[in-house]
């Protein structure tokens, strides 16, 4: 199985910054992609950003130019740097890892427990 440990959420004023981290551990054979999703109250979970093993990156239109995503392959860790935060960025942010796990090496999605990000003055 895969264990995902998230950190970095919290309360920040509009215009501020936060950095989220997600470290994956367990019987990982290979990671296909790592990313972040978010879910605001009363809304569906949505993609924020994803980075593939090959380094291809995709962002939600609403965060382009403000958020960056990066990864440390040696640590199986993905980061989300969030700048110029807005109240509408308030949500629970979930880490997602698409990986092959031993012994069957089937490709599957794994989710973190979520971390709250609140943007408010």
- Total beta-strand segments: 11
| Overall outline | elongated
Measure the end-to-end span. Answer: 40 Å
Mean pLDDT: 96
The value of Rg in angstroms is 14 Å
Low-confidence stretches: none
Continuous helix count: 0
Instruction: Outline the biggest β-sheet.
Output: 7 strands, mixed
Counting helices, strands and paired strands, the structural category is mainly beta
Beta fraction: over 45%
Helix content: under 10%
SSE order: EEEEEEEEEEE
Protein model, in words:
With 121 residues, this protein is mostly beta strands. Helices cover 0% and strands 61% of the residues. The protein has strands at residues 2-7, 10-12, 18-26, 28-39, 46-52, 57-59, 67-72, 77-82, 91-101, 106-111, 115-119. The strands form two sheets. Strands 2, 4, 5, 6, 9, 10 and 11 form a seven-stranded mixed beta sheet that branches. A four-stranded antiparallel beta sheet has the order 1-3-8-7, with no helix packed on it. Strand 9 and strand 10 form a beta hairpin. The model has no long low-confidence stretch (mean pLDDT 96).
């Amino acid at each position: 199985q895969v264990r995902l440990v998230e950190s970095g959420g919290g309360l920040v004023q509009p215009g501020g910054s936060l950095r989220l981290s997600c470290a994956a551990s367990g019987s990982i054979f290979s990671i296909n992609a790592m990313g972040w999703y978010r879910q605001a109250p009363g809304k569906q979970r949505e993609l924020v950003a994803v980075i593939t093993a090959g380094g291809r990156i995709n962002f939600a239109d609403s965060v382009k130019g403000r958020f960056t995503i990066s990864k440390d392959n040696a640590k199986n860790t993905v980061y989300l740097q969030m700048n110029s935060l807005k109240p509408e960025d308030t949500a629970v942010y979930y880490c997602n890892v698409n990986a092959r796990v031993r012994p069957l090496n089937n490709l599957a999605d794994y989710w973190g427990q979520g971390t709250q990000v609140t943007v408010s003055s």
